[in-house]
Fold these 2 entries.
Entry 1:
Amino acid sequence: MSATAPSINAPKKSIWDGGQSPFKASYGKLMMWFFLLSDAFTFSALLITYGLIRSAHPAYVGEAEAFAFSQEYWPIPEKVFEAVPFLHGVSLPLVFVGIMTFILIMSSVTMVLAVEAGHRMDRKDVEKWMLWTIIGGLVFLGCQAWEWSHFIHGTGGGGAGLSWNEYGPPDFAAFFFFITGFHGTHVFSGVVLNFIIYYNTVTGVYDRRGHYEMVEKVGLYWHFVDLVWVFVFTFFYLV
Amino acid sequence: MHAENTTHVQPQPVDKAKIRKIWVTAGYMALITILEFIVAFTLPLEMATTRVSIFVLMTIVKAFYIVAEFMHLKYEMKVLIWSILIPMVFVIWMLIAFIYEGAAINEIRY
């Protein structure tokens, strides 16, 4: 008797019965996508709540030149974030945060290049681009540390804490700490993950495994961190 | 450690067109960020609605480039693309509901 003769009575196999990837993506990559989706909800909730609190407060009316910090209305971001390291006392609105945005976008680009090198099994190139990505992440974190320090110490009006700040209503500083802090935590864990990938690449783990998919998975996370920053940049600093 | 096992791995040649595409995408994003700065400094604060609409639009364009090209979602299966995009309606709902709510609180308070 032939064992494998096709029969109309055989149970129909669905692509969901196991043994294959219905989404044509590995389990790990798929789960990274769904984790990022849930993380996107968290960040959306934070930024949208910022929108709610901001729209619940009065906005500043009048000339931008005449703007002064007050507890009575929500501050104009470009009047708060106008300092740049080593250029003390010079008003350069949003320049520093623009530099930070550029750094993070560039580190996203080097990450794509690392993933691309991984597809080609090119260990030397993966090492090079992962290292640039890690450096970009660290520089961004350094910039954020400076920005926080400047924000907390203030410009002579008392600075900022969780319950009070010189720039506007208490919620303004609270949201600044919470949103940029939560994003900064993501950048930090991203740098740690990137370093682990870099270490594994250098020690030849992925060459022995036969593929560089881990670079891709962590790359997804790193791009997400960049994506969130694009939204933080717009809704916290520009609008 | 096991270095002798890895020396035989031969990297494949670089696809110049692919690398070019990555840098072109990066260039677009840099250009959009510069445009955002120009808008932030030239359009007066009184034109709040125009400013905000331009910023939001440019942010969505940048987000598209990151998700579609860098995260490679554009080249995944349709079902994966929709599994990620459709749940975003909750975010849109939340945005509308919360901003509406904020405006209502503002009206009651002031």
Entry 2:
Amino acid sequence: MTKHYDQELDSGYTMTTVMAEAARCLLCHDAPCSKACPAHTDPAKFIRSVRFRNFKGAAETIRENNALGAICARVCPTEKYCQLACARCGIDTPIDIGGIQRFVTDFEQQAKMDILEKGPSNGLKVAIVGSGPSGLQAATTLLQKGYAVDIYEQQAKAGGYLTYGIPEYRLPNDIVDFEINRILNLGATIHYNTTIGQELTLAALKTSHDAVILAIGASQAKMLPMFENNAYTETAVDFLARVKTNQGHVTVPDNVLVIGGGDVAMDVATTLKLLNVPQVTDVVYETFSEFKASKKELEATQQMGVTIIDGYVPDSINDNTVTFKHRKINGQIQVQADKIILAVGQVADAAHLDLTLENNEVPFTGYQTTDPKVFVTGDIAQGDKTVVWAVQKGKEVAETIDAVLGGH
Amino acid sequence: MINKDLSIDFLGVHFENPFCLSSSPVGNCYDMCKKAYDEGWAGVVFKTIGPEHFVVDEVSPRFDELAKEATPFVGFKNMEQIAEHSLAENLADLRRLKADYPEKVLIASIMGTNEADWTELARVVTEAGADMIEMNLSCPQMTSHEMGSDVGTNPELCQKYCAAVKKGSDLPMMAKMTPNITDMGPVAKACLAGGADGIAAINTVKSIANIDLDRKVGLPIVNGKSSISGFSGKAVKPIALRFIQQLRTTAGLEQLPISGIGGIETWEDAAEFILLGSSTLQVTTSVMQYGYRIVEDMKNGLMHYMAEQNVEHLSDLVGLANQAIIPAEALDRDYKVYPNIDWDKCIGCGRCFISCYDGAHQALTWDEDTRRPTCNTEKCVGCQLCNLVCPVGAISLGEVVMKPGRTGDVTAVEVHSSRLS
């Protein structure tokens, strides 16, 4: 079947097939899957609810633990967390926990369930800079605790990388919008097109709010010096945002070179194939044994016919021809392409935020900065950089603020 | 998370929700009942307490299970009898449970061999603090023919023993019925005449679940032999529902208070028992398979069901489905409904064709090239077997037609259900 960029690649379970998958679950004691979920989404409990045909109860478990449950269901690298821990691996293959979670959150949406409740107002206000996953989860937890929440987003739409980065076939915008609307309905106010340091200052936010959370993420593409000002080169961040904003209606030449081996690079390569680019070559610094991209993304990319060359680092560029050298053995390759997309990482831009970052992270553990009113979360906080970790950090920064401000 | 009042009154006792452990291995001591209470069960029917002179002596192993394809525990066979602890130990556990959980419901299941036993057991469990008594007239695997289902099929004995229990205790009392009988009505009526306040139904069904084919012995094998014993679990649910429905539609028993038992493991099962007339529910087999935790989803799911049905009190649901169960001769036999086959959804497995040919009326034709079925309405009787076997929901209820010579408004016929779309 021909797949398109604007169609979700994975078609999802039906009622019959989800019951068959849930029936495979061993309903373990002290379930390892639940212990392995960074966001404590509690898969053991929601799968048990599915198993006993309590779909609404399953939805409550997911939603109350994870404000972005429908998003995590689609993008979480479950093979590194819950599914890696699954005891069913001792028999055959792990339970498709992400797939079951997606079925349940789709059910929740169709049943028009309204699970989250705003807490009684405690009169305190928190400003959140950035509306990516961590900012959204922090907003939700704070609203549940009775805080008023203002979110400041520099783009025209909320969601950060969820909206502008992860491709439509993997995470439809409708899903992201639905999750964000849920948080808006809970009482969050989002101020769009507002960059702190330009339209508003951090000092002003600290005056108008009881606490400020910096959830700015690593939103800027990293550039390698040799590619600067190269006319054929576009960053992955710019490319993915351009394709997603235009819902796949963009023109791309027939031969594209991708450089990078993380999930973003896989997203770029797969997007190119879904846009019917015949020749997509991805050259990766890491060898397959040390690959950064999730196995699921790597396999999907390979299945689509992307040529992946591992272990090579760019050495020089001449117009549209890049020369790579192998990192370990003596060898080099040259790739000529009509377009070059650079997916070699992202950096945080903390200008005007009085924040010192080292390797795009704050140089301390936890969430409170040296300024007692200012907190950090998401990718700039120390720790993993996945959406599920962003969710957990969002919950934790909200708890930290609640402990500091004593909102109860 | 949803929170609705699941409480219900039964025989004058208030239950915080309808879910109780049934008298069985799952409620055999203080620690088990404590854990069940802590995990959300409203009541416990403590494992049947017998007279001191009856010595419980169990076999090993003592269980078997019936599987179908990849599904284990479709049904469960159990040879265990009544509580193996001493009378003094059991009574001490009852006392401690009531002291530690005064708001929970503690039901003492008892079983005697004669009137004096029944009276004495009723007296001592009342003294120990039980809120209610259940008479076990129905265990099918007792080693004494003066006990269990041999008693429960005899109305005269049942009446006599119920009266004996009432002599020993003023507590509300329910008599637990055996399904190993054609009509439960006479036994239930005899129990009520003897003083029972309500009925618990059903106990287990006499069974042989499997045979070891090499050894040519039933399972479980006890030193080369086996016995008939009680069968429970999901497979007996239809039998339990039938008995409960028939009790509630027996003249004079329309308001009979019932504690429903038989294969309950989901909130949907629970709702079915309630809709046919059960006020409280008792569970064992699914607890043995999955643990006390299953009560969480039963409670939560039942709350959501009440919300969907706009019902504030669980008691408003009791018995609602009885009115639409009528004698077979009273059903509307004037119409038939054809299958509607969606060729886009069809994956070409041909299961509908096989079932229609081999199990119905040869009304489906099979195109070997396109691998798609077509319905010949001349032969189709509207049985919908094809609809039931389709693995992808490609067959739904289609056109409703009156049978030749019958009159009626086909648009007024109610055909749809949660099973057949």
